[in-house]
Amino acid sequence: MKDAAPRPIRLSQYRKPAHRVDRVDLTFRLHPSRTRVLARIAFRPDPEGPGGPLRLDGEGLRLIEAAIDGTPVTPLIDPAGLSVEAPDRPFLWEAEVEIDPAANTALEGLYMSNGMYCTQCEAEGFRKITYYPDRPDVMAPFDVRIESDLPVLLSNGNPGRAGKGFAEWSDPWPKPAYLFALVAGDLIAHSDRFTTAEGREVALNIWVRPGDEDRCAYAMDALKRSMAWDERVYGRAYDLDVFNIVAVDDFNMGAMENKGLNIFNARYVLASPQTATDADYARIEAIIAHEYFHNWTGNRITCRDWFQLCLKEGLTVYRDQQFSGDERGHAVKRIEDVQMLRARQFREDAGPLAHPVRPESYVEINNFYTATVYEKGAEVIGMLRRIVCEDGWRAGLDLYFDRHDGQACTIEDWLAVFADATGRDLSQFALWYSQAGTPRVTLSSRIEDGTLVVDLRQDVPATPGQPEKLPHAIPVALGAVARDGTEALATQHIVLTRPHETHRFAIGTGDAVVSALRGFSAPVVLDQPLSNPDRALLLAHDTDPFNRWESGRELARDALLRMVRDGAAPDPAYLDALGPVLADDTIEPAFRAMVLALPGDDDLARSLAEGGTVPDPDAIDAARRALALAVARRHEDRLAHLFDSLAEPGPYSPEAGPAGRRALRGAALSRLSRIDGGARARALVESADNMTDRLAALTALVAIGQADDALAAFYDDWKSDRLVLDKWFSVQVAAAPGDSGAQAAARLTAHPDFHWRTPNRFRAVIGALGANHASFHAADGTGYDLVADWLIRLDPLNPQTAARMSTLFDSWRRYDAGRQELMRAALTRIAGKTDLSRDTSEMVGRMLA
Ligand code: 0A1
Ligand code: ZN
């Protein structure tokens, strides 16, 4: 147990550090269980700091010896670090510590994965490597020497001397300790080069386990495109002679932007047509870009403290989304991003874990790498850009990079550059960083004498600790579509700042439908009473692709909610409206696939709960299946035509065009499988030459309970490939019909290949169960119990991943009394575990509060 009742850390209590660091010199003598770390750190008292003794963070370290300016010292050691008297002038701290990487199952600090040493220091892992002021506002250049017989020895920065059994690295760019990294192993490189716009020749390497080297080409290509894009779009060039990426199998998150040495979860690097799906390729591209873009937004300009996490994450997510949009098409990318935002962030914002984009307190910072900080943080950047307009955006960004390069900054610094560059008062806009909760915008409209009158109201819901809210500045893009399908009003940009506003627009028609929140111009819930014929009109004719899709989704949602609530039959109006979209080959296939997709069960449950109906997971699941079946019956010919005509003739390419065609074909297949007994899917699962088609077919078979043979064959083919085997585990649980995913998960957790200590495998089963709404919420509580059992088991080994997964329970108050009781009991059981980690106990405590 880390702490009985750990006290929260508060933003309001920020104080400057007492000591700054001028230089860090580290030597690692690597050994699986007895690694020695020698640190020589040049400190200097900060005249603006609070003074006092030298205070260093440190956890799980065995101090061998320490000295100040060459004189041995005996610091006062406690569980969180040490304190020692130090001179009131610059001095040299030297310390040798011993650590045990092989015993490090938490995957923070220096740990081992398949015989390879690697590190994860964000947010507070460096303190598990040596004593240090482990806070992001202490920045220093690092020199590192690694001693080991392993063939590949890597750290941040540029390579220095190397010889038998050692290598040296030097990072000239001052950085906080969370960006430190070290890797040592028997690795093989996929190498390339890039010449920056400034003429710097950069050696690029992707380091992987031998055998994986033929799966790196796509990640390398994505890296080079990211480097070129950041130069072209943001004027930011790379600043070292090498850029290394390492793939590791054991990793808590997606990837990490360590300076010059990005470390990736292997699943976000390795891809071949036979092993990775189109979705995997798209994620690899996005994450490679994200980590690379952090070199400027995160590394060159970092965060003053962890409350400012969204400063680097919101901006970097925004940048990676723009990049993917430029590379793959903005319409589809925006729809995907909004789907993700609603599924993860809106859910978070509506429950007990709601927090502002910039939280004001935390117990364990690792619990705040959330959809709110990342995805809502990115939405806030998008809104800022809409509000300051294109010139203001460019001027503000230039000022940001000029003014703050090399600094550790705050959200106030970020907003000040836009205020200074544009002369605007952004104080109301700043509320987006401090107020939690998803605002609701209610819109009604009428046409009076050729004028479109739009009434808008905004409400920001109460969230934990924030009962009262002020109105936000909400950019609303809106237009209107006339009854004949022509555009009656081109997109207008307004910024809602008051609780109620009325806007008037001259309009050349007597009747039109308002298309509001075009492009999803703000992260809000839009409440606009539209009839289904109005929605069908927008689906068919809106010039805004996001709202075309949104109108189709609203039709589907409305049909499903009526099926769940009133036992209604599938709405023929929805089925009719799909017809033209399915038949129109001029519409991009990826877009048509998204129109065909139904809203997720969890999304529907949230809609029902917000509308005052207790969601019944079985009824939601049944309604979804009934609607999918009705779509299949009604459009069988069109779907069959799509399935037949969209087969890709040539060799597999992961590009957006062919990927979109496969997506539409897969969507058609999943509908058709409900009426053809799985015949097409069975044929495709055998004939497919790529993982996208094969997994789409397998998923369709699992969903209709016809997958036994196909699953056995898949296992035989892929049992020695860890990344593909994760898919085999996951599909059986995530796609299982009804509540059968709970039994599937129980069966799979007893499988000899269920290596639950590896986060990817754990997530493939336990995370997949959480993603299968009807199964997680199985009425007898088996889903809840299974997840709770495994979280209790994982927590002592890997608190960070256990805490993250515990959020599966965050919506417990939505459900019926029986399920609420079962979920509360599961949470209480986790909370009552002796020695529960600080990470998980914070999460469970917030959910039960
Ligand atoms: N900064 C990384 C994500 C990351 C965050 C925390 C970690 O450990 C607690 C690891 C990685 C990113 O945004 O990609
Ligand atoms: Zn990031």
From TrEMBL:
One of its GO terms (molecular function) is alanyl aminopeptidase activity. InterPro entries: Aminopeptidase_N-like_N, Aminopeptidase_N-like_N_sf, PepN_Ig-like_sf, Peptidase_M1, Peptidase_M1_dom, Peptidase_M1_pepN, Peptidase_M1_pepN_C, Peptidase_M1_pepN_C_sf. One of its GO terms (biological process) is proteolysis. Residues 218-429 form the Peptidase M1 membrane alanine aminopeptidase domain. Transmembrane segments: none annotated. Keywords: Aminopeptidase, Hydrolase, Metal-binding, Metalloprotease, Protease, Zinc. Residues 534-849 form the Peptidase M1 alanyl aminopeptidase C-terminal domain. It holds the Pfam family Peptidase_M1_N. This is Aminopeptidase N. It comes from Palleronia sediminis.
